[in-house]
Amino acid sequence: MTITVGTYNVRGMKDDVAALIRVLSAMRADVVCVQEAPRFLGWRRDRMRLAEAAGLRVAAGLRLGSVAVFVAPGVRVLHTESRLLKIFLGLEIRAIAIAVVEVEGARFAVGSIHLDLDEAARLRHATEAVAMIEQVAARFDAAIVLAGDINEQDDKTTWRYIAARLSDCYPRAPKGNGMTFTARSPGKRIDAIFAAQGLQVAWCGGVEADPADLVAATDHLPVVARLVRG
């Protein structure tokens, strides 16, 4: 049983929305974890319109925290929940959006996160997010997929913490050079997809979209992984 999961920081739809829609469509994902989803006036409408324009629908996500999960029409959604993570005075409010989905009879608990620029907050939120999605996955006998904007690279503490509990998909079956930031001049891999150790990774990496659209859509590049559950 296979699932295609993507992650994409859309920068609040502040850039070229038409290009953003084309890139989302080019991801051809069953589930997309979104960061910096619209959060101001009309946020529900804006998220819905973005998802629908790309052939998706909104499954989960709070206004605060600006994370969401979009799913494709053929994906069955069994459960959704969104939770705030620990609030640190003076820092952005962070959250996790989780959707438990069923694809080809297999269940997956997919979580979207956007971690902080502050190192201590980033690690605290990562530990909370991993614990939360583990609890949800256990209730539904679902394989875990956690994806998002980690705001650090793979040699740092928070990334290593997540990768010790879930597998970093890109090194297992890389597609492209893996760099995600900035979209205009990609030199860092700060966006990632992590999956339960038991999931096989067919491939993970960049999206085959018009290079001009990738630059115009937002300041991050998307990541997509094809995962197999036996």
TrEMBL record:
- Cite the entry's keywords alphabetically: Endonuclease, Exonuclease, Hydrolase, Nuclease
Q: What is this protein called?
A: Endonuclease/exonuclease/phosphatase family metal-dependent hydrolase
Domain Endonuclease/exonuclease/phosphatase, which positions?
6-220
Is Hydrolase set as a keyword in this record?
yes
Q: Say if the entry is tagged with keyword Nuclease.
A: yes
One GO molecular-function entry: exonuclease activity
Which top-rank group of organisms is this from? Bacteria
* Protein's organism: Nonomuraea dietziae
Q: Which Pfam families match?
A: Exo_endo_phos
